[in-house]
């Protein structure tokens, strides 16, 4: 039996990579071009395989994940989560990011630990890794779900919730210079990001994992993060 090879990822003669635009820690858009560590890894993988790269743009992790069972993409970049693992197979993580909350400037909350209070509402992006986590641990506050991270931030800004959850870098981009809001210090979850293949192609996950291991070991991931202004994000050893 022929052993799976990296080139087998390109099932349609090209490499179809799902890119989540909702996570600005990993993906940035400048003049229509996709930048950041995830697009950089996708480009390197396509180059190693020797095929054309097609990057499929999604505005949320949920929408990206939904393609796992529809033969839309060959690889994806997403947070490691046991619920998603029922439909995708992960590599080792290539970066670790933090999730926190934004509140209004006059909010009594000073830390993430104070946020789970009765009578308070928390806006999240439906299907994001932090939504899946908060859905299990929040006991008192009401979770209000929006269709994407951008929609969650917009609805919070419009007054539809007391707080909004998100990846720190995305929250800093949206609220960091606005004195009407505060980004709470600390984090409610550290999220490991990995590459993934649909579960039906799980036999290719070890080859993709070895690719990620090489990209970490030779400094490629670190360099891509630094080049995109994300030098504060740690690369798991």
Structure description:
With 237 residues, the protein is of the alpha/beta class. It folds into 2 domains: 6-96 and 193-227, 3-Layer(aba) Sandwich (D-Maltodextrin-Binding Protein, domain 2); 98-189, 3-Layer(aba) Sandwich (D-Maltodextrin-Binding Protein, domain 2). The protein is built from 7 helices and 11 strands. The chain starts with 13 loop residues before the first strand and ends in a 10-residue tail after the last helix.
* Helical/strand content category: alpha/beta
The total count of helices amounts to: 7
Spatial gap, N to C terminus:
33 Å
Q: What is the ordering of alpha helices and beta strands?
A: EEEHEHEEEHEHEHEEHH
Parts with pLDDT < 50 across at least 5 consecutive residues: none
Mind sketching the topology for me?
Elements: E1 14-20, E2 28-30, E3 33-35, H1 37-49, E4 52-58, H2 61-66, E5 75-79, E6 88-104, E7 121-125, H3 129-137, E8 142-146, H4 149-157, E9 163-167, H5 168-175, E10 181-183, E11 189-198, H6 205-217, H7 220-227
Parallel strand pairs: 1-4, 1-5, 7-8, 7-9
Antiparallel strand pairs: 2-3, 5-11, 6-9, 6-10, 6-11
């Amino acid at each position: 039996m022929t052993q799976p090879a990296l080139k087998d990822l390109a099932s349609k003669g090209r490499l179809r990579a799902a890119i989540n635009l909702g996570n600005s820690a990993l993906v940035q858009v400048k003049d229509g071009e996709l930048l950041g560590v995830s697009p950089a890894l996708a480009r390197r993988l396509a180059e190693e395989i020797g095929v054309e790269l097609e990057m499929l743009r999604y505005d949320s992790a949920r929408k990206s994940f939904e393609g796992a069972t529809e033969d839309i993409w060959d690889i994806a970049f997403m947070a490691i989560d046991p619920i998603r693992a029922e439909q995708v197979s992960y590599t080792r993580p290539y970066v670790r990011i933090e999730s926190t909350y934004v509140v209004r400037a006059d909010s009594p909350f000073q830390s993430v630990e104070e946020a789970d209070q009765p009578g308070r509402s928390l806006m999240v992006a439906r299907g994001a890794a932090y939504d899946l986590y908060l859905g299990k641990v929040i006991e008192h506050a009401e979770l209000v779900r929006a269709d994407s991270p951008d929609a969650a931030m917009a609805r919070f800004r419009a007054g539809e919730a007391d707080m909004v959850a998100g990846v720190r870098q995305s929250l800093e981009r949206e609220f960091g210079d606005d004195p009407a809001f505060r980004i709470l210090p600390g984090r409610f979850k550290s999220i490991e990001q990995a590459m993934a293949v649909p579960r039906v192609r799980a036999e290719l996950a070890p080859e993709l994992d070895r690719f990620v291991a090489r990209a970490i070991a030779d400094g490629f991931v670190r360099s891509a993060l630094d080049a995109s202004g994300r030098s504060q994000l740690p690369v798991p050893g």
